[in-house]
């Protein structure tokens, strides 16, 4: 048996173990070769064992050599030899190579988007070589022992980029070359379906752009980023089918809703107002029946078949809040079930009737819930004065809205809307004509005076430290209100909203006399004090005189100066200021209106 091995440095200086020949012992059953005397069996076994040991020793040595370090021998990244090194050493070597190439890696990268080309600073879009990820990739470059032992390989560096920053930069380059996707739509003009067919969009895809830039950064060549076409999920044919199979037949005839308390007929016009075809971002068009819109279209017709739940009511008695009405559950149509049932019958020409289930509905505010809300003390109170006594229409409007709001409980985190709470304030709701500001002048209008209540309520929540969500001061300043800290209201365009930004419930308590309106807020006191600091008035303007045609609609006024002023809400807690909020308003000079022609 002959066995020999030698290690020679090949051209790339990587050692290679060569095994050139192995001759195994001759079997005992064969005659011995003439030149060699027959060896004893023990000697032959010893020789075989020795050969095996030598072979295994060589293989073990080669394996140890091949698996030295974490990175396979012969592995290069950006020309840096990382083979045979631990991951830590390989990372150190790669960082050194990146430092040597800093000027090269920092060169502007030419990027083409559509018909435009720009040079991008790699640092501005976060283009870097991820050293740890690159070393990990290099360590996995050759897992097979033979692959680790022989040959060489070049591993591409793993490139990182800030996708959002890159996308923002490329969008500026793209400019108006793209186009927005036209999402499909089906709407109604009366009871006639109107269709918008989908059209594909052309825009940058952030992930695709990042992929292209990462791949091309180190190539030394300009990179072309594609504008990607995106098609809406619902096709034009599918839109037409929805029109033929649902939108048109839906409004072809009425639908009857029957409950255990009676029935209501839904006319095609009400169906058209409540049947919606909404498209998501992908352009998928989905029909749905908006039960809230249906209720609005039916007015009180559906409400008459239901029993509204009644909230528990609090009232101030003996200087403390007490439950005066425990409330009661109600019965309402199951909206989700009604939507599905209506969508099922709307495509049909016959059998357009659904059975609507009346489900028990608990009041939002129960007596048990009120007891746990921490409504225990008066937090703030504010009063404004009016003239004319309770016999005047304006005073009666103030009293009407005050009664509507009295006893309202606003839960923690809930936003209160005055328009949402009272609904429309018209003749049917008990409001009367009184002066309102319209187009800059006082004219008779239903609900005049409700702005005074709004201002009183605003000040009450303001001094309670509650969050102002929406309010708008008057165009002119009236001295019955504090400057800046006041609010008008007008249905449905101008609203007043505040949020209960505490962990306790808030009770709004209202009261009035023949000359005053008072709003008090009851809850748990959080702050030491809430006060207002004013800046001096500035930009003062004087009123001009305007002559109007005399008549019932003409209301004279003396005129009021205009000015700008700041009000600061200063909130203290624990002996220090915890919040300082600035409110600023510019008042116009109210003209001096004269009912009669200029003499």
Automatic annotation (TrEMBL):
Residues 246-354 form the YoaR-like putative peptidoglycan binding domain. InterPro entries: Glycopeptide_resist_protein, Vancomycin_resist_VanW, YoaR-like_PG-bd. The chain crosses the membrane at residues 45-68. The keyword Membrane applies. The keyword Membrane applies. Keywords: Membrane, Transmembrane, Transmembrane helix. PANTHER family: EXPORTED PROTEIN, EXPORTED PROTEIN-RELATED. This is Vanomycin resistance protein VanB. It comes from Micromonospora costi.
């Amino acid at each position: 048996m002959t066995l020999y091995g030698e290690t020679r440095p090949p051209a790339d200086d990587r050692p290679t173990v060569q095994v050139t020949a192995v001759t195994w012992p001759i079997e005992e059953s064969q005659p011995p070769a003439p030149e060699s005397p027959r060896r004893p069996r023990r000697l032959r076994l010893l020789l075989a064992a020795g050969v095996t040991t030598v072979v295994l020793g060589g293989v073990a040595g080669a394996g140890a050599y091949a698996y030295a370090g974490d990175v396979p021998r012969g592995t290069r990244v950006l020309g840096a030899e990382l083979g045979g090194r631990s991951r830590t050493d390989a990372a150190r070597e790669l960082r050194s190579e990146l430092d040597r190439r800093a000027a090269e890696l920092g060169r502007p990268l030419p990027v083409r988007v559509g018909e435009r080309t720009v040079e991008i600073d790699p640092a501005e879009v976060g283009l870097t070589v991820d050293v740890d990820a690159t070393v990990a990739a290099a360590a996995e470059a050759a897992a097979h022992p033979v692959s680790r032992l022989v040959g060489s390989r070049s591993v591409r560096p793993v490139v990182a980029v800030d996708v959002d920053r890159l996308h923002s930069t490329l969008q500026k380059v793209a400019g108006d070359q793209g186009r927005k996707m036209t999402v499909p739509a089906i709407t109604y003009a009366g009871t006639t379906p109107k269709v918008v067919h989908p059209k594909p969009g052309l825009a940058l895809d952030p992930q695709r752009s990042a992929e292209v830039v990462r791949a091309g950064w180190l190539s030394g060549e300009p990179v072309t980023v594609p504008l990607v076409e995106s098609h809406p999920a619902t096709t034009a044919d599918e839109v037409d089918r929805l029109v033929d199979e649902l939108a048109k037949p839906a409004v072809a005839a009425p639908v009857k809703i029957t409950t255990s308390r009676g029935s209501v007929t839904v006319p095609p016009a009400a169906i058209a107002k409540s049947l919606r075809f909404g498209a998501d971002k992908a352009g998928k068009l989905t029909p749905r029946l908006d039960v809230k819109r249906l209720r609005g279209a039916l007015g009180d017709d559906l409400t008459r078949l239901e029993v509204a739940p009644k909230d528990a009511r609090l009232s101030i008695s003996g200087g403390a809040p007490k439950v005066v009405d425990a409330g009661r559950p109600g019965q309402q149509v199951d909206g989700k079930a009604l939507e599905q049932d209506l969508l099922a019958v709307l495509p049909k020409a016959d059998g357009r009737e659904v059975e609507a289930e009346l489900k028990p509905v608990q009041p939002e505010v129960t007596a048990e819930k009120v007891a746990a809300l921490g409504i225990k003390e008066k937090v703030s109170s504010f009063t404004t004065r009016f003239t004319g006594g309770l016999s005047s229409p304006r005073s009666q409007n103030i009293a009407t809205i005050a009664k509507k709001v009295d006893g309202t409980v606003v839960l923690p985190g809930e936003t209160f809307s005055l328009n949402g709470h009272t609904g429309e304030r018209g003749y049917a709701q008990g409001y009367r004509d009184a002066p309102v500001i319209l187009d800059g002048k006082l004219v008779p209008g239903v609900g005049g005076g409700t702005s005074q209540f709004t201002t009183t309520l605003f000040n009450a929540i303001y001094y309670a430290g509650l969050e102002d969500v929406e309010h708008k001061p008057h165009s002119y300043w009236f001295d019955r209100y504090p400057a800046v800290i006041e609010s008008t209201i007008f249905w449905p365009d101008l609203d007043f909203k505040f949020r209960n930004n505490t962990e306790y419930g808030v009770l709004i308590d209202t009261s009035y006399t023949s000359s005053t309106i008072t709003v008090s807020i009851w809850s748990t006191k959080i702050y030491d004090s809430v006060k207002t600091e004013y800046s001096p008035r500035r930009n003062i303007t004087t009123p001009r005189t305007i002559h109007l045609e005399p008549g019932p609609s003409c209301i004279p006024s003396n005129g009021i100066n205009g000015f700008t002023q700041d009000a600061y809400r200063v909130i203290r807690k624990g002996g220090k200021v915890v919040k300082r909020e600035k409110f600023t308003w510019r008042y116009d000079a109210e003209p001096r209106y004269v009912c009669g022609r200029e003499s």
